[in-house]
């Protein structure tokens, strides 16, 4: 019996998302790292003509921001809402939403948080430093939530493989 290949459009499981977070950890995260990671995300998005905004925050400070053609001010509002989920829960915004869905509910129904302030939609991923923990977030907005999440993960995987 052969195992069917997973479709790239199937959402990852909670376990797969948690494994991404355990794997995608920095030894350090400097201003230069934020610039290089943000620039890599811009490059990947341009190659795909993705109409996204990209944001990197560390310890409450915005270190990188870019808005590509087709993005709108609404993408910046989504970035802020998704980033707040990472800051509050210490996990990727997509993972937080997936955990609620796994319990048979939604973030909006059960978190008791204002949906105008928090959005557990894919696209914001914690910047985690070894021995320190979550210090910030890298966020993309403009694509469907799973694609936003996957774009950030792809960039982190590529960036960290070079470190």
Automatic annotation (TrEMBL):
Recorded superkingdom: Bacteria
A UniProt-annotated Pfam family: HbpS-like
InterPro entries assigned: PduO/GlcC-like, PduO/GlcC-like_sf, YBR137W-like
Family according to the record: Belongs to the UPF0303 family.
NCBIfam families reported in the protein's UniProt record: PRK02487.1-5
Record PANTHER family: PTHR28255, UPF0303 PROTEIN YBR137W
Annotated protein name in UniProt: UPF0303 protein QO019_003191
Organism from which the protein derives: Streptomyces thermodiastaticus
């Amino acid at each position: 019996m052969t195992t069917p290949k997973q479709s790239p459009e199937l959402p990852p499981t909670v376990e797969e998302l948690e494994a991404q977070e355990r794997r995608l950890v920095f030894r350090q995260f400097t201003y230069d790292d934020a610039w290089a990671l943000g620039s890599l995300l811009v490059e990947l998005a341009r190659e795909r003509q993705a109409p996204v905004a990209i944001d990197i925050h560390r310890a409450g400070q915005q270190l990188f921001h870019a808005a590509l053609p087709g993005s709108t001010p609404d993408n910046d509002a989504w970035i802020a809402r998704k980033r707040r989920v990472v800051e509050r829960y210490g996990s990727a915004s997509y993972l937080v939403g997936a955990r609620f869905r796994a319990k048979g509910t939604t973030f909006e129904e059960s978190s008791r948080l204002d949906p105008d302030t928090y959005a557990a939609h894919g696209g914001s991923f914690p910047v985690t430093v070894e021995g320190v923990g979550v210090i910030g977030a890298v966020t993309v907005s403009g694509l469907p939530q799973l694609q936003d999440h996957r774009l950030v993960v792809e960039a982190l995987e590529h960036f960290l493989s070079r470190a």
